[in-house]
Amino acid sequence: MSDPESIDEQNIVTDAEREQSAADDRPDVGGDTVRNQLMRPRTILSFAVAAAILVVFVARADLDLAEIWENIKGANVLLLGAAFLIYFSTLALRAMRWRWMLSGAGVGTVSGTVLPSTPYLTGIYTISWLINCIVPAKLGDAYRAYRVKRDDGIRYSIGFGTIIGERVFDLAVLVVLLASSGLLAFHGTMPGESTSALILGIVMVLGVTFGLLAMHFFRDRIESLIPSRFRPHYASFQISLFETMKRPLVPAVYAVVIWFCEGLRVYFVAESLDAHIGLAMAVFVALLSALLTTLPFTPAGLGVVEVAIVTALTVAGYSKGIAGSVAVLDRLITYWSVILVGAIVAVIMMKLRAAGSQSAGSIKDTVQSTSS
């Protein structure tokens, strides 16, 4: 079996016939499928689980909803606006990193592919976040790979290779920062609840590391188990993934900046309530929330994240009213506003795509009439 890295990457990327046959078998993860996913029992059940978690937690934790509402009404709108802008700026940072990864995988330099612009990828990211908020199991990542395949000719194998690569860096940096910020926030001794989350993150990192090592050292064996028609796609996927792994500095720096911005978001949310939790605690809460959104039980960790924010802040000594208020306002930004903004961006991009298709059709008709 040949070494995947010795395969001609250009042939892999431009193998249109095989790619099309494989693409025909892939489900459309566009609008129709998302609507279908919303009506599936699994999705409905996930929202029911999230609602049950919140109801039970509010009752058992004896949260004063009236106090939380009063805190929210008195929040500083300017600081909340800053938190909102910081959060959505991270989508642009993620788009810039993804573009760098796609470029490293050969996109834009190989015939048949177009390297998307950062604003375009930011739009795709926003819509994928929307999908993650309404459908469990991170379907938004599949949407990203689907969208750049349809619009830019980027193969699924390359799209998923870069997406998994960025997820690896995000997770590894998250766990390191979660541990360090937790130790700082809790003065060297993390409470049991936080330690459990950290252990979860460490286990996930070890699992990913083991998987990457297996892919690298047993690639011949893995290829032999894959049907021959899919081997070029797997080789392309592996090349894209490990090209990113070979140049870790840039994606790792992006991950650090992104996670720090997430911490700043929580910091400004807390400051808007006159709750001076400190930057270390804000980073810890933000990263704890981000880690829990990876669990596929509810959309974007709905229910689970809110409970984690309140628990972390109350364990740190803040009142339940402040903790609940921070949780509500932070999720207003990271969950509910994503649904609103994502829907607006989806409509805009759909109209732009339709306008582009009409323009292309007009040009085609003009050329055909001229040639006749």
Describe the structure in your own words.
- This protein is mostly helical and 372 residues long.
- It has one domain.
- 78% of the residues lie in helices and 0% in strands.
- The chain contains 16 helices and no strands.
- It has helices spanning 9-13, 16-24, 31-38, 41-61, 65-73, 77-104, 118-134, 139-152, 156-185, 192-217, 219-225, 231-246, 249-272, 279-292, 304-315, 320-371.
- The chain is globular.
- The protein starts with 8 loop residues before the first helix and ends with a helix.
- The model is unreliable at 1-31 and 363-368 (pLDDT under 50).
Structure summarized in a few sentences:
By secondary structure, the protein is mainly alpha-helical.
- Kindly estimate the percentage of residues that lie in beta strands according to DSSP: under 5%
- Overall form: globular
The whole-number mean of residue pLDDT values reads 84
| Total domain count | 1
Report on the biggest sheet: none
Radius of gyration: 23 Å
- Reading the helices and strands in chain order gives HHHHHHHHHHHHHHHH
Structural class by sheet pairing and helices: mainly alpha
The oligomeric state of the chains shown is single chain
> Helix coverage percent of residues?
over 70%
Q: Give the CA-CA distance, first to last residue.
A: 52 Å
Report the total helices.
16
Question: Keyphrases for this structure?
Answer:
disordered N terminus, 0% strand, mainly alpha, 372 residues
Give the SSE layout.
Layout: H1 9-13, H2 16-24, H3 31-38, H4 41-61, H5 65-73, H6 77-104, H7 118-134, H8 139-152, H9 156-185, H10 192-217, H11 219-225, H12 231-246, H13 249-272, H14 279-292, H15 304-315, H16 320-371
Helix pairs in contact: 5-16, 6-7, 6-9, 6-13, 7-8, 7-16, 8-9, 9-10, 9-12, 9-13, 9-14, 13-14, 13-16, 14-15, 15-16
